[in-house]
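User: Please predict structures.

Assistant: First:
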Amino acid sequence: MMRYSRQNKILELIANNEIETQDKLAAMLKAEGFEVTQATISRDIKELQLIKVLSSTGKYKYAVSARQDAPISDRFVKIFRETITSFASAQNLIVIKTLSGCGPAAGEAVDCIGLPHVVGSVAGDNTLLLIIDKEEHVEEIMAIFNDMLIMRSKGQ
């Protein structure tokens, strides 16, 4: 699951810094404790579908693609399935437990899947809190999560 932690850190780094090259990204990851090779960085960029965009300083930097096509959805469903360990609800809240370091990745996955009725999410290291618009919609979201786990147990 180190890959999900690393990829989550990449998303965080490109959101908060202007990263123009794979070398700069690799150096920043190493400073954060991730030992990476150029091939790993290249693979992560491809899997995350990062693109280069013109920054406010006139240089090109890495950014998340705005496209929301099926491969992205499938990838986020897979991330969610592989990182969550349990989930439970209380009123209009759903608390999701994840593997250590995977809370933000699971949160990004849930946000990108585009679940109905989710007002927002807050991610910690190994926990994700979802706020649902109305208590009566929680059961629908929990059923979606159960379906994802059933797919995992069948090896899909």
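Second:
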Amino acid sequence: MHTVLRAVDGLNEWTGRIIAVATVFIVLFTIYDVGSRALFSRPTDWAFEVTKQLYALHFMMLGGYALLHRSHVEVDVFKERLSARGQALLDVLGYLVFFLPFVIVLLAYSIRFASRSWASGETTYGILAIPVYPIKTVICIAAVLLALQALATFARAVTVLLRGEERAHVA
């Protein structure tokens, strides 16, 4: 079990580091577009569309990475006052009631969403008509990464709850 949890952590860590590079391209394309607009009074036909898709990729794919590093919103005011087991119980309940159902719904709907986009060959409404189905597929991939990290975090919380051990976290 420990090997599987480490593999999930490693997958999300690797994904986060790779996808973070998209930020560089978002900045470069934005600077290029703004520069073209300001210096030549002519915005590009493609930079805004490409930047939107890169931002979507960046935002969605980093959900599992953020969960791995506990960067999602928590109510720490109450949680920090609890023992390790109390925190684990709160995590287990929170994941069962809120997080895991959300991820299941996200995954189910994103698969349908992406399937329809692929079936119709959906494109953007811009001049270039950039294909949208790859980025809609990213929603499915992001949901899987988020679900895997949620299950890993949940499993660790259950272990703490049952055994009283401190949290094992690999980052």
